[in-house]
């Protein structure tokens, strides 16, 4: 399981992470851009979560400008997170679908899943992306993460879980069979060594349980009520 750390800092710290096998996450809100030596060692976020936390509209122009900037450097991210709406359900899915064809063809694209989505909702889009990005509110994300990983792997895709910061969350992500995760606590609070220790310890552990073969994400609340979407 690959860890990507939010990277709004200078070259020395980025080099230290890369030397430890930790990838980098870049957002349109950062003033730094990836370097040529980081080719395929970084992922591109869309900035939607930062806007959600700050209570501001998502900066679509800023995201598009950042994509053009990175594309102009002739380097490729490990993947880009399609624009989404935090906890936005099918509105988020519509936004993500709109961007699949607008991003560089050579970039791998991960489809974010958000509160209220079901597997039936996203299946029609999965042949156009390379992975699933598990977002959403904290409770929903961890309640459904195993199912999304299972669906991705059945279809030959990868699965990434966002905002994985604690040792417990790292173990939960590993246990869910995630291919990669990201977090920002270590970089924000200068806890690099603690993160490295957690990752090293995690590498010595086996997943605690496997996902049941017939496990599927829970139905949305509207389905449980019998509402028609």
Summed up, the helix count is 10
Overall, the morphology is: globular
Q: Given this structure, which CATH class is correct?
A: Alpha Beta
CATH architecture identity: Alpha-Beta Barrel
C-alpha Rg (nearest Å): 17 Å
The total strand number stands at: 8
Give the domain tally.
Answer: 1
Low-confidence stretches: 206-218, 220-229
Which bin fits the share of residues in helices? 25-40%
Taking all residues together, what is the mean pLDDT? 89
CATH superfamily: Aldolase class I
What characterizes the major β-sheet?
A: 8 strands, parallel, barrel
Give the SSE string. EHEEHHEHEHEHEHEHHH
Strand content: 5-15%
Structural description of this entry:
The protein is an alpha/beta fold and 229 residues long. The chain is globular, with a radius of gyration of 17 Å. It has one domain (2-225): Aldolase class I (TIM Barrel, Alpha-Beta Barrel), CATH 3.20.20.70. An 8-stranded parallel barrel has the order 1-2-3-4-5-6-7-8. The N and C termini lie far apart (36 Å). The protein is built from 10 helices and 8 strands.
């Amino acid at each position: 399981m690959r860890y990507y750390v939010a990277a709004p800092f200078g070259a020395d710290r980025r080099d230290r992470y890369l030397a430890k096998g930790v990838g980098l996450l870049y957002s349109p809100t950062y003033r730094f851009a990836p370097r040529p030596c980081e080719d395929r060692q970084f992922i591109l976020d869309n900035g939607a979560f930062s806007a959600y936390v700050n209570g501001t509209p998502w900066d679509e122009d800023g995201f598009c400008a950042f994509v053009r900037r990175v594309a102009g450097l002739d380097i490729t991210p490990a993947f880009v997170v399609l624009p989404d709406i935090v906890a936005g359900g099918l509105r988020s899915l519509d936004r993500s679908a709109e961007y699949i064809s607008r991003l560089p063809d050579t970039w791998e694209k991960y489809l974010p899943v958000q509160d209220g989505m079901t597997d039936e909702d996203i299946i029609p889009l999965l042949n156009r992306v390379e992975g699933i990005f598990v977002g959403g509110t904290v409770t929903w994300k961890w309640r459904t993460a195993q199912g999304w990983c299972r669906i991705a792997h059945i279809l030959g895709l990868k699965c990434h879980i966002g905002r994985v910061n604690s040792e417990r969350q790292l173990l939960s992500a590993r246990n869910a069979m995630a291919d990669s995760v990201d977090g920002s606590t270590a970089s924000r609070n200068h806890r690099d060594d603690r993160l490295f220790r957690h990752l090293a310890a995690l590498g010595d552990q086996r997943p605690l349980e496997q996902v049941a073969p017939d496990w599927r994400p829970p139905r949305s609340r509207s389905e449980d009520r019998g509402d028609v979407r």
